[in-house]
Amino acid sequence: MSLRGAVDLAAVKAAGEAKEKAQERARTAREQGAPVASSAVLDVDEASFEQEVLQRSASVPVVVDFWADWCQPCKQLSPVLEKLAEEYNGKFILAKLDIEANQALAQSILSQLGVQGIPFVLAFVGGQPVPMFQGAVPMEQARQVIDQLVDVAEQQFGIVGEPIGESPADDAEESALPEVPEDPALAAAHDALDRGDLGGAVQAYRNVLADRPGDEEAKAGLAQAELLQRTIDLDPAAVRSEAAENPTDPQAQIRAADLDLVGGHVEDAFGRLVETVGRVFGDDRNTVRVHLLSLFEVIGTEDPRVAAARQALARKLF
């Protein structure tokens, strides 16, 4: 097996470059006069809820503030949430929903969750609802809950936001930084992968991550090496036959998806697991969801196919 290009990995380093691309988008938007900073807080209604909340939550946690003009506690809580949204600068988006102007939508959501009063704050991550709190809460309590939300979004869903606004001084400082040479440990891991030493590559990437848990390039390399390690001894015909005969067997579908990805059939791999998420429940659903997120790491979170799959996953989960 030729490992270089065995998976469609033109974006092997895409995860590591995500921050730079986000910063570039922010700079471009600022140069074009777009209201970058104000996008941390937005008003949503029944017409925009699907796009601005559910679809947007595939790439950034969205916190929904259910409020009404007659609600005095809402007037205490809303400024707290707005201040935090600006402070967190893109780690989450605050969407404000006026329940009086959008009664059908608000009633549908609140009744499903058994909520009878406002203010009520509900987050969406990857299209999945995450209840936050009900009633007005102080700033520090709200901050603690949002910190937990941001951590859950990254650890369980692989979803992180991106900076909304940056100062020109920050841009100049970043551009003045010297280029950092490639880390020898990371280079050794890449070389092991290219040689077909999968065990050595896995260990080398893990060593890098032990020192730098946030190294996106090492995460992507480890995901690729583990994928190849899982599939190298599989019988493709047997795997595909088993998957066809057992559409609700999580492990059968996972093995087939892995083979799809190794063969370069990225959309097929993602689509198979998204459909399986829609067929199974409980622990089986979570197993498939988590594996799908690991395949996103292989391709790179900036790849448009990953964004499309995240949206499809969100529709299945919610």
TrEMBL record:
One of its GO terms (molecular function) is protein-disulfide reductase activity. Belongs to the thioredoxin family. It comes from the Bacteria. It comes from Mangrovactinospora gilvigrisea. Keywords: Redox-active center. GO terms for biological process: response to stress. One of its GO terms (cellular component) is cytoplasm. Coiled coil: none annotated. The keyword Ribonucleoprotein does not apply. Residues 30-151 form the Thioredoxin domain. This is Co-chaperone YbbN. Pfam families: Thioredoxin (PF00085), TPR_20 (PF14561).
